[in-house]
Each structure stands twice: as C-alpha cells, then as structure tokens.
Amino acid sequence: MQHAVGSPLPPPHRPGGAPQQQPGYLGAPSGPVPPAPQPAVPPVPHPPAPQHAPAPQHAPAPQHAPAPGHAPVAQGTDTTGHVPLPPGGPVPMPSAPPAPTVPDPAATTLAVLLIGPAGAGKTSVAKFWADHRRVPTAHVSLDDVREWVRSGFADPQSGWNDHSEAQYRLARRTCGFAARNFLANGISCILDDAIFPDRPAVGLGGWKRHVGPGLLPVVLLPGLEVVLERNAERSGNRRLADEEVARIHGRMAGWYGSGLPIIDNSQLDVPATARVLDDVLARAIASPPKW
Question: Exposure pattern of 194-211 as b/e (b: 16+ CB <10 Å)?
C-alpha cells in the first residue's frame, strides 16, 4: 500500500520497546519497498514573519513610603545609598551668630539704688526716670523719709552724732521695707542715698540686707564744680556748706575702684542723664555687678 504523499511513518515505540500499531497500519512488507515517486510540488512561498508586538510596558513598581526620619530620594539625582547628594557649587560662608538680646530696662521691674554726693542731681534724675517708664515705678528718697520726723529731727547740719545716725538707719530700713513692698506688687522702685565706699557694711551692705541681692546700685558723680554750683541752688536743711560738699565729694571718689557703674553727668541735663541710666541698667541686668 502506498501513501499519496511521502513514505509511511514508522510505528511509534512503546516505552517497553515494542512498536505500537496505529489504526489502519497493516504491518511492514516482506521485501524491500521501492521508494514511491515524489510528485512535483511547487514551492510554497513562505509568508513574511509576523511582526512581534512590542513587549508590554510593565507598570512601575510602587514606591515605598520613606521610613520616618529619611528623606525620599529624588529621581535623577546623584545619590550614595539612600542619602541624596546636594548639587555641586561653592560652599557658602557660615552666617554670623545673632546678636545677644539686650533687655529693655524701661519695661522691666527693677530695684535701683542711685548713689551720689549732695548736689549730684540724684533726686531730680530719679524722679524723671520714674515718671517716664512704661511700667509702674516708685521713687523713694532717703532724705524725704528722714524728714518724716518733724519734732526731734536730728539735722546732720548740726553735726553727725549717734542720734542722727539712729534716724538715718531707721529711715533706711523704712525705705527698704517700702521697696520690697512695691516690688512684691510688681512696681519698680528707685532709691537715692549719699553712701560712702569706705563704709560698705553701713552703706551698700545695709541696702542689700533691706532690699535684696537684686538691687542694682549706680553711682552719679559729676565734677566738684558742678556739685558746688547745684548745692548753692538748694535751700533749707538740704543745703550744705561748701567745705562739707567738698569733703563728701572727695570720699565719693572711692567708688571709681569699686566696680560699680559710674555716670559723670557734669555735661548732661536730667533727661539725658536718665537715658544714660537706662543704658547702664541694661548692661547691669545682662551682667549684674558684684558688690
């Protein structure tokens, strides 16, 4: 039996080795089978290879949220690990540190002790300074408190003795109590007194005990000629002899080696002296003097 096209296919082999007969297969012939003549078959033109469709674009992998504390890596930037590198360029100079804040003494509750000889202008400057502050401020003058005593007043012009010393100490304690009371109620206080540097226990030490360590002492010390001229304009028991004024002024010169701030208001009027006092107090608040 001959097939129409091609030679017969050999029977497939079973896994066991015996050939498996396909349906319609009658077995191999006994003799050699001459090859069947092959009909002329015209060549079949091959169709052009199909154009492969472009590979599907894979969706970009979802970006994971950056871990807390790590900045996301920008696309297209030069990176090392997960740390984005800044673009190249000159390194700027570091900026200057901010200037320290200077406290405003006009808006701060303060306790000020204005020291100076008779005729230095302590009372006038203290009143003007207290009148022009933005916070409540009281002025307590030691001379005013001493003059509360009407009968039996120990006038220093009659001589400094134990009686006048006792009234002075009593007036200072009264001023200290008043200052503490004002400060406890949010009211600033400026006191004025003529105390000497050669008696620290009686002068500064007494004020510090009565008012507190936050008291800011400032010395008002113009020249002797100015002090004599201003003392001549005073009246009553507050006007002293020129010799006494010169003696007190000479003792006050010892404040120059004390470390306390000193204002020479020889060429300054009262408003200008009050402005200088504000500047001095601003520095004293930032760096309190040791006394």
Answer: bbbbeeeeebbebbbebb
Arithmetic mean of pLDDT, 231-247: 83
> Is residue 146 packed enough to be buried (19+ CB in 10 Å), middle (13-18) or exposed (0-12)?
buried
Phi, psi of 112 (to 5 degrees): -120, 140
Q: Which residues contact 104 (CB under 8 A, 6 or more apart)?
A: 282
Out of 13-22, 116-125, 261-270, least confident range: 13-22
Planar angle of CA 223, 147, 213, nearest 5 degrees:
65
Residue at 82: amino acid letter: H
Residue 16 has pLDDT above 70, yes or no: no
Contacts 24+ apart (CB under 8 A), 129-136: 129/190, 129/274, 129/277, 129/278, 130/188, 130/190, 132/274, 133/106, 133/188, 134/106, 134/107, 135/106, 135/107, 135/108, 135/109, 135/186, 135/187, 135/188, 136/186, 136/187, 136/188
Number of separate domains in the chain? 1
| Of 107 and 181, more confident | 181
In the chain, % helix, strand, coil (3-state, to 5) comes to 35, 10, 55
**Within-domain flag for 96:** no
What's the pTM value of the predicted model, to 2 decimals?
A: 0.62
d(CA 46, CA 89): 63
In a domain, 45, yes or no: no
Q: Is the model more confident about 149 or about 9?
A: 149
CATH number at residue 279: 3.40.50.300
Lowest mean pLDDT among 32-36, 76-80, 153-157, 207-211: 76-80
